């Protein structure tokens, strides 16, 4: 399966035009944003767990990164409420579930094989500060290494957001909305811009809270190892 697999091109997905599809686990549905591979895939996905649903225990050979959008995600290491950011490194193993139900934004098989950083950022630890040289923007760091930078950005109402992206970018709307290339992005809408692109966006009248990852598209994305 291949979805938005040309990483040299701009890609965008919106909830209204991207219906939920069943996963192999009962009660778990997905909105696929980009994907290379079948059930084991390099994938970016929004996943919805019905109350009481779970996946079987499994190992993430290529690592897993996720942000809890709604509800409470659960596994052996604890409960992760909405707003929690998590990185589980390659070869990590868990049994994901949600007694109350939840929705997460998740990226699979997108870490360096030698990445062993386990990251947990609960909502209470998010600290926003003004972005240097970017008026109307506040940033809360989530993770940064030599390959990529992951953060939350808060855009003031009407803020014009311009940035050159040598290593590309992905943006997921969490709250509010913004416009880019005459296209409107509302909560759970996703935008991917290729390396060398330039972001030119404008926040809506209520502003916007967005998840942003930059730098990671410098390398050609690869399918999962066999």
Which secondary structure elements does this structure contain, and how are they paired or packed?
Blueprint: E1 2-3, E2 11-13, E3 21-22, E4 28-37, E5 41-49, E6 53-54, E7 58-60, E8 64-75, E9 78-81, E10 85-88, E11 92-94, E12 97-98, E13 102-108, E14 119-121, E15 129-130, E16 137-144, E17 149-155, E18 160-165, E19 169-180, E20 183-185, E21 190-193, E22 197-214
Antiparallel strand pairs: 1-4, 2-21, 3-4, 4-5, 5-13, 6-12, 7-11, 8-9, 8-10, 8-13, 10-14, 15-16, 16-17, 17-22, 18-22, 19-20, 19-21, 19-22
Structure in a nutshell:
A hairpin with a 3-residue loop joins strand 4 and strand 5.
Give a structural overview.
This protein has 226 residues and is an all-beta fold. The chain has no helices and 22 strands. The relative contact order is 0.18.
How many helical elements?
0
Global outline: globular
CATH topology of the largest domain: Jelly Rolls
Mean pLDDT across every amino acid position: 95
Helix percentage range: under 10%
How many E strands?
A: 22
Q: What series of H and E elements makes up the topology? A: EEEEEEEEEEEEEEEEEEEEEE
Considering the chains and any ligands shown, give keywords for the structure.
226 residues; mainly beta; Jelly Rolls; 9-stranded antiparallel beta sheet; 0% helix; 56% strand; globular
